[in-house]
Design goal:
The chain is an alpha/beta fold and about 250 residues long. The protein has one domain: Rossmann fold (3-Layer(aba) Sandwich), CATH 3.40.50.720. It is built from 8 helices and 7 strands, in the order E-H-E-H-E-H-E-H-E-H-E-H-H-H-E. Helix 1 packs across helix 8, helix 3 packs parallel to helix 4 and helix 4 runs parallel beside helix 5. GO terms for molecular function: oxidoreductase activity, acting on the CH-OH group of donors, NAD or NADP as acceptor.
Length: about 250
């Protein structure tokens, strides 16, 4: 129990990478879950000795219990879970098929529930822990052409509150971060292909710029730390004021 143990889903790039690095830099052994072996192992090599690769597809819901059981057996405890992994799809609502919608929900919502349930079992047995979910501006206000993504992230915020209330008795805190527009490859691709949306983003962001991935990592680390020991059930926008911008 000398070191805390964390799991970060989708931790081999973007916001997840910055989060995993922040945790590792603060002495927390961090398991990074990623689908791509090479990318995940390379990320762990870059981050350093506290990073551990876990090659896994979160779409395999029935295999999640065994995955978490393996980590718990090896380490004896899991102290932090960061549900960061997610996928997006940009389509007109009328063009979104049932299969499209369910695929987004499976990865962005169902897998979050499944892995949180399994990690909760471990945390409960070890008298506590911290879960941090990653939401989105798509849950703060309406965004066009991302109906499935918006639905999944809005549900994540509701799940956060429900989990926080139910799990507080076990000393398990559950919080959520709603990132604004952060400098990542995914965001750049989305905005650069839609100049009108890009202009709208900056015009309604009071701080007038995009955030850095490290801004999310810092916020996650705070919510997962003992410094936030009396905080649970919150949704924290890290967005330069975007969600309240006029």
């Amino acid at each position: 129990m000398s070191k805390k143990i964390a799991i970060v889903t989708g931790g081999n790039s973007g916001l997840g990478y910055a989060t995993a690095k922040k945790l590792c830099d603060n002495g927390i052994i961090t398991y990074i879950i990623g689908r791509t072996k090479e990318r995940t192992e390379n990320a762990c090599s870059e981050i350093g000795k506290n990073a551990r690769p876990l090659i896994f597809d979160l779409g395999d819901l029935d295999k999640i219990p065994a995955l978490i059981a393996d980590v718990a057996k090896k380490e004896g405890h899991i102290d932090i879970l960061v549900n960061n992994a997610g996928i997006n799809m940009k389509k007109e609502l009328i063009d979104v098929t049932d299969e499209d919608f369910q695929n987004i929900i499976k990865i962005n919502l169902s897998s979050v529930f499944a892995i949180s349930r399994e990690v909760t079992k471990v945390m409960k047995a070890n008298n506590g822990g911290s879960i941090v979910n990653i939401s989105s501006m798509a849950a703060q206000y309406g965004l066009p052409k991302v109906i499935a993504y918006s639905s999944s992230k809005t549900a994540i915020e509701g799940m956060t509150r429900a989990m926080a209330v139910e799990l507080a008795q076990y000393n398990i805190r559950v919080n959520c971060i709603a990132p604004g527009f952060i400098k990542t490859k995914m965001t750049a691709k989305a905005l650069d292909s839609d100049p009108e949306r890009k202009e709208k983003v900056f015009s309604r962001t009071p701080m007038g710029r995009m955030g850095e991935p490290e801004d999310i990592g810092d916020a996650v680390h705070f919510l997962a730390s003992d410094e936030a020991k009396f905080i649970t059930g919150v949704v924290l926008p890290v967005d330069g004021g975007n969600c309240i911008g006029f």
